[in-house]
Amino acid sequence: QVQLVESGGGLVQPGGSLRLSCAASGRTFSTCDMGWFRQAPGKEREFVAAIRWNGGSTTYANSVKGRFTISKDSAKNAVYLQMNSLNPEDTAVYYCAAQRPSATWPTTRPRDFFSWGQGTQVTVSS
Fold first, then answer.
1. At 101, is the pLDDT very low, low, confident or very high (cuts 50, 70, 90)?
2. 3-class secondary structure for the chain?
């Protein structure tokens, strides 16, 4: 089992940047593909980015491609999401999650992930 805790959210002006962190614990973290999702009020949870267990491959939603970067530091048991050029449409609660071993990479479906963190709020507003 993997336990996840997100941090780093906050209020930022349009065009600004934030770096989200996801601290992980559990024996299987080092072998898990990891993902970031977000959920805005009244909307379904949507895929943002994912990274393979060894950091060898990444995938992004079209809406964040070129602006967000996902990374993983297995030595620190952490996953990060660097978010640049933020706009109001990025406002949401951001969650990290571990991909189920049975799921095929790449997947963007929330049901293919487990061990969700509690989320961190990101608000982009002037």
1. confident
2. CCEEEEECCEEECCCCCEEEEEEEECCCHHHCCEEEEEECCCCCCEEEEEECCCCCCEEECCCCCCCEEEEEEHHHCEEEEEECCCCHHHCEEEEEEEECCCCCCCCCCHHHEECCCCCEEEEECC
